């Protein structure tokens, strides 16, 4: 009896693992919102759900500043990119050889319930050499707060997100991931 149960249990566990793997590989469509909207695959599977012939996942689709991009439950927009950003105060100084990049970003919750958003988890800056940069906190007076916290259904939060990067960094892109299961979307900053 226990041997039969063990076989059934092992079969059930294998089925659950396969279902979990399929869920992890499900595709998320990143969609540009607006008149010239387009739908873009952001995972390693095709729209029909079959695996891509390539052994590596395709690069995230790149959008541009000003595009409204739907990714999962969120629409993200980079309204403006200040590259380089020069603080008006004496407190915020980049390290020698570095510069600040400040992005005016907006995130809109398109789900039917309130969602939490963290700019430190949702945004990452990447350069053309695939070097990543984390968010930097600046003390600039009058600088809008970063979009953080609970966002009600259908509502948006807008603010500025700062990064410190080498002055030589080229090919800067803001990468956005709205949720754990969402694909990553890249927004080219034009620098």
Question: How would you describe what is shown here?
Answer:
27% of the residues are buried. A seven-stranded antiparallel sheet has the order 2-1-4-5-6-12-10, with no helix packed on it. Strands 3-14-13-8-9 form a five-stranded mixed sheet. A two-stranded antiparallel sheet has the order 7-11. The radius of gyration is 20 Å and the shape is globular. It is built from two helices and 14 strands, in the order αβββββββαβββββββ. The protein has one domain: Immunoglobulin-like. The termini are far apart. The longest helix has 23 residues, at 2-24. With 191 residues, the protein is mainly beta. The model is unreliable at 2-27 and 39-58 (pLDDT under 50).
Could you give a short description of this structure?
This protein is mostly beta strands and 191 residues long. It is built from two helices and 14 strands.
Structural class: mainly beta
Question: Can you write the helix and strand succession as a string?
Answer: HEEEEEEEHEEEEEEE
Radius of gyration: 20 Å
Oligomer: single chain
Percent of residues in helical segments? 10-25%
CATH topology: Immunoglobulin-like
Number of strands: 14
Q: Tell me about the biggest sheet?
A: 7 strands, antiparallel
Mean pLDDT over the residues: 78
Instruction: Report the β-strand fraction as a percent range.
Output: 35-45%
Uncertain stretches: 2-27, 39-58
Spatial order of the strands forming the largest sheet: 2-1-4-5-6-12-10
Molecular shape = globular
């Amino acid at each position: 009896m226990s041997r039969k149960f063990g076989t059934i249990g092992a079969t059930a566990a294998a089925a659950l693992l396969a279902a979990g793997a399929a869920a992890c590989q499900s595709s998320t469509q990143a969609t540009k919102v607006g008149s010239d909207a387009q739908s873009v695959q952001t995972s390693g599977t095709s729209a029909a759900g079959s695996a891509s012939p390539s052994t590596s996942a395709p690069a995230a689709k790149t959008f541009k500043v000003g595009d409204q991009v739907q990714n999962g439950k969120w629409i993200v927009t980079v309204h403006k990119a200040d590259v380089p950003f020069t603080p008006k105060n004496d407190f915020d100084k980049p390290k020698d050889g570095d510069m600040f990049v400040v992005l005016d970003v907006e995130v809109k919750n398109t789900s039917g319930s309130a969602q939490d958003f963290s700019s430190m988890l949702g945004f990452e800056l990447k350069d053309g050499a695939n070097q990543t940069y984390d968010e930097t906190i600046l003390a600039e007076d009058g600088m809008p707060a970063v979009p953080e916290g609970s966002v009600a259904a259908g509502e948006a939060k807008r603010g500025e997100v700062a990064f410190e990067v080498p002055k030589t960094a080229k090919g800067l892109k803001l990468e956005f991931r709205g949720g754990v299961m969402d694909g990553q979307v890249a927004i080219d900053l034009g620098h």
